[in-house]
């Protein structure tokens, strides 16, 4: 039996402290339209009694970033064993100039934004939304054939990382 092919991202969901604060950031600053919002008192997948609002912002490719407002005005807690730069959500713009313009727009709104980071195949800026979710805004700058080369090397690099990780863990023991 073959593995069903995943078509793409439908949505990524994250908790938020306040629905209106989140809407203002994603719609008014980032320009993502709010396209759906639902309220419920019971979680359909678990049956748990928990009032919430679940709302969706549409990205240009038809996928969504979504949020849950659980009605408690609490900031989502970061993972205690993960650096703040690890968990992030990256969105793509069409050019490095657009990334720079978004960075200026964010700064004008009072958001702390990194300088453009050159990853050699993408150029990105990083910042946090009002809920502590780290976001990356990026544009591709890779040369033709770059991703194909990376795909050929990926398994070997991951195997090499596994060996290095084993040595690092052994040094800690």
Topology as H/E string? Answer: EHEEEEHEEEH
Rg value: 19 Å
Biggest β-sheet: strands ordered side by side in the sheet: 1-4-3-2
Q: Rough shape?
A: globular
Structural class by helix and strand composition = alpha/beta
Distance between the termini: 43 Å
This entry's quaternary arrangement is: single chain
User: Mind describing the biggest β-sheet?
Assistant: 4 strands, mixed
Contiguous uncertain segments of 5+ residues: none
Beta-strand level of the residues, as a percent range? 25-35%
Number of extended strands: 8
Task: Please give a structural write-up.
With 173 residues, the protein is of the alpha/beta class. The protein is 29% helix and 30% strand. It is built from 3 helices and 8 strands; from the N terminus they run βαββββαβββα. It has helices at residues 19-29, 96-108, 146-172, and strands at residues 11-16, 34-42, 49-58, 64-69, 88-92, 117-118, 122-128, 134-140. The strands form 2 sheets. A 4-stranded mixed sheet has the order 1-4-3-2. A 4-stranded mixed sheet has the order 5-8-7-6. Strand 3 and strand 4 form a beta hairpin. The longest helix is centred in the last third of the chain and has 27 residues, at 146-172. The model has no long low-confidence stretch (mean pLDDT 96).
